[in-house]
Write a structure and sequence with these properties.
By secondary structure, this protein is an alpha/beta fold. The protein contains ten helices and ten strands. The protein has a single domain, classed as NADP-dependent oxidoreductase domain (TIM Barrel, Alpha-Beta Barrel). Bound molecules: NADP nicotinamide-adenine-dinucleotide phosphate.
Length: about 280
Amino acid sequence: MQTIKLNGDVHMPILGLGTFRVRGYSTVYQVLDAAFQAGYRSFDTATVYQNEADIGKALKELLPKHGLTRKDIFVTSKLAPQDHGEEAESACLRSLEQLDCDYIDLYLIHWPGKQGLKSEDPDNKLHRQKSWQAMEKLKESGKFRVIGVSNYTVEHMNELLSHCRIKPSVLQVEYHPLLVQTDLLNFCSSAGIHLQAYSSLGVGKLVSEPQIIKVAGKYRKTPSQVLLKWAVQQGIGVIPKSCNPERIKENFMIFDFSLSEEDINTISSLHSGTRYCWDPTHVA
Ligand SMILES: NC(=O)c1ccc[n+]([C@@H]2O[C@H](COP(=O)([O-])OP(=O)(O)OC[C@H]3O[C@@H](n4cnc5c(N)ncnc54)[C@H](OP(=O)(O)O)[C@@H]3O)[C@@H](O)[C@H]2O)c1
């Protein structure tokens, strides 16, 4: 498994499993079991996914089953938008408790705004600043190995870099061929921050995109493998989600081929600014 060396001197697998909408203990157990079997060692969750406790419980059973220990895996979770500000520290500790872990590898601020405040409310800035300070404290105490943010724009990133004591290691954003966020990618590479993509498969919709199907045929790969490889080959981390054991396996089989530069560019030219998830550009 290819890994990324994050600032903070921590290695993260470039491909992990997304777990949004993976709910209920038996589903979580089966999905993680299939993922371990396929080779996944990294798992992306969040407080708002309401599956941290089930993931924690499943890991306790699955690590020994697969001959692994906690240090063999990489767990990411996120601070819920409702917990920004004063509540951030206790919310971070709750994530640790729910996951039943002594530490979390990567903890992210899920969203730049506080739930309940209007997007344009300038107090959002104060809340996310307090959240970052709480996360810095938990990183210093060893509860988080590295910390980062999600859904931040270049403006949010510049603001964070102007006040942080600990630099973010990761920025997780929506990124796929219809949403090629070049400004964020360039910002991250010059700041030494890893850009990790979510919704790489366009929440499943991009596997039917004719141009992707055409490129996939050329390499005898599937559209989802091409979508994931397109990102990974550019140094962008991916966390595809699937509840289907065959697709979980399929999404992992991307390390035995390379796309030509021409095909990478052809895929990138599909960019249309299409978002499948939330748009943070108006959060003050
Ligand atoms: N930070 C954020 O704000 C944020 C936002 C969104 C997502 N995320 C994270 O990113 C992860 C991935 O994003 P996502 O879940 O939005 O979407 P995604 O990974 O782009 O797509 C998931 C969808 O694609 C389907 N799928 C998976 N593999 C497939 C394959 N090989 N062929 C055809 N269809 C396939 C899945 O269905 P089946 O399950 O039926 O296979 C599911 O419906 C999330 O789970 C979450 O961990 C973070």
